[in-house]
Amino acid sequence: DTEVTQTPKHLVMGMTNKKSLKCEQHMGHRAMYWYKQKAKKPPELMFVYSYEKLSINESVPSRFSPECPNSSLLNLHLHALQPEDSALYLCASSQDSAGAIPQHFGDGTRLSIL
Amino acid sequence: SQQGEEDPQALSIQEGENATMNCSYKTSINNLQWYRQNSGRGLVHLILIRSNEREKHSGRLRVTLDTSKKSSSLLITASRAADTASYFCATDTNAGKSTFGDGTTLTVKP
User: Fold this and answer.
1) B45: pLDDT confidence band, cut at 50, 70 and 90?
2) Partner A contacted by B71 (CB < 8 A)
3) By C-alpha distance, which of B43, B69, B38, B72 is closest to B56?
4) N or C: which end of chain A has fewer CB within 10 A?
5) A48–chain B Cβ distance below 8 A for any pair
6) Do B96 and A105 count as a contact with CB atoms less than 8 A apart?
7) In B, residues 75-104, which contact A (CB 8 Å cutoff)?
8) How many CB pairs under 8 A join A and B?
9) How far from chain centre, in Å, is Cα B55?
10) What is the mean pLDDT of residues A73-83?
11) Which residues on neighbouring strands pair with residue B10, listed in sequence order?
12) Do A99 and B31 touch (CB under 8 A)?
C-alpha cells in the first residue's frame, strides 16, 4: 500500500463533464505534485504546490485546475477535457520542494475521456 | 526535449542475471534519482545520488554517476521475477522540479 492515496482509481467522463481527482497524504509533507503519464511514457510534471501555494505550473491548459485545500489534500478539477487528456494522473508528495528529496507517489487515477 | 534519456528502452534477462540500464542527461544537475514503476502502479523511489557522489549502493542496487559524461547507470544484481518493471531516472536541476527520462522496461524471466 502506498502512503499517498488517490481517488478515484478509474474515471470515465465525457468532454462536457466536470469532475475532480483527489489526493491525500498524512506524512506531514509540505510539497505536493500532479503528473500526467501517457502509456509507455515518463511522467510529465503539471503542477507543484509548496506549503499550500502553487509554485510551479508547467503551462498546463486551463481545463485543468489544481487546488490545495490544506497541507494533506490536493485536488485536480477537470472541465471540458479533450480525448488526448486520457492518461494516468499521478499525485506525489515530498518533505519539501527544495530538491534532493525523494517523492512518494500514489497509484494514480486512470482517466478516459469519451 | 527530455532531460534524461535511457537505454536500453527494453531489457529481457533470466532470473539470477544482472541488469544494467543507463541514463544520460543534457544539463548540469544537483542530484539524480532512480524510480521503479510496476505495471498499473505509481512510482517507487529507489535511490538518490548527489552530484558530488560517484557511486551508491542499496541492497542489490548499485548506482554510478559520471558528471563529466552526464550519465548514470543502475545495476540490479541477482535479478528476480519481482524486479520486472519500468525504471526511470529523474534529474533535479531546479528546486522542486524533477524531469524524468524515457525509462527502461525490464523483464526478468523465471
Assistant:
1) very high
2) no
3) B72
4) N
5) yes
6) no
7) 88, 92, 94-103
8) 62
9) 13
10) 96
11) B105
12) yes
> Between the CA atoms of A81, A86, A90 and A91, what dihedral angle is there, to the nearest 10 degrees?
10
DSSP-derived secondary structure for chain A? --SEEEE-SEEEE-TT-EEEEEEEE-S---EEEEEEE-TTS--EEEEEEETTEEEEE-S--TTEEEEEEETTEEEEEEES--GGG-EEEEEEEES-SSSS---EE---EEEEE-
Looking at the partner chain, which of A50, A55, A99 has a beta carbon nearest the beta carbon of B92? A99
B40 touches chain A (CB under 8 A): yes
> Following CA atoms B82, B87, B92, B96 in sequence, which dihedral angle do they give, to the nearest 10 degrees?
-60
Inform me whether the C-beta atom of residue A31 falls under 8 Å from chain B C-beta atoms: yes
Spatial neighbors of A31 by CB under 8 A, at least 6 apart, are A48, A49, A50, A51, A93, A94, A95, A96, A97, A101, B96
Q: Characterise A93 by phi-psi region: left (phi > 0), alpha (psi -120 to 50), beta (else).
A: beta
* pLDDT tens string B60-92: 999 999 999 999 999 999 999 999 999 999 998
Give tens-digit pLDDT for B13-28. Answer: 999 999 999 999 988 8
Grid cell digits, residue A49:
504546490
Hey, which residues does A79 pair with through a beta bridge? A18
